[in-house]
Amino acid sequence: MNWDVIDVKAIEPLALQVKFEDGTIGKVRFENSHLTGVFEALKNPATFNQVHIDNGAFAWPGDIDLAPDAMYAQIQSHGEWILR
């Protein structure tokens, strides 16, 4: 699928650069207000930097992940996806 993630890396605190199967590249930024519940672990830079690809999505230890289809749509439209 076009929205399968093929590369992801942490580029700054709470921000990632992501590349999709079709070559689309964009940025995903987390605002602190989004880092609650399961995402609270991502406040720790050591955890945040453990981002990796898992079955076409990116994920972190502890079964934390994001749906790539919504991310892809936002990056296609705006060049980035901001999670508030």
| Secondary structure tally, helices | 2
Name the strands of the widest sheet in spatial order. Answer: 1-2-3-7
Low-confidence stretches: none
Give the tally of structural domains.
1
Describe what you observe in this structure.
By secondary structure, the chain is of the alpha+beta class. It has a single domain, classed as NE0471-like N-terminal domain (NE0471 N-terminal domain-like), CATH 3.30.2020.10. It has helices spanning 45-48, 68-78; strands at 5-12, 15-20, 25-30, 52-54, 57-60, 64-65, 80-83. It is globular, with a radius of gyration of 12 Å.
Summarize, please:
About 20% of the residues lie in helices and about 40% in strands.
Q: Can you lay out the helices and strands and say which pair or pack?
A:
Blueprint: E1 5-12, E2 15-20, E3 25-30, H1 45-48, E4 52-54, E5 57-60, E6 64-65, H2 68-78, E7 80-83
Parallel strand pairs: 3-7
Antiparallel strand pairs: 1-2, 2-3, 4-5, 5-6
Give structural attributes.
84 residues, alpha+beta, NE0471 N-terminal domain-like, four-stranded mixed β-sheet, three-stranded antiparallel β-sheet, 18% helix
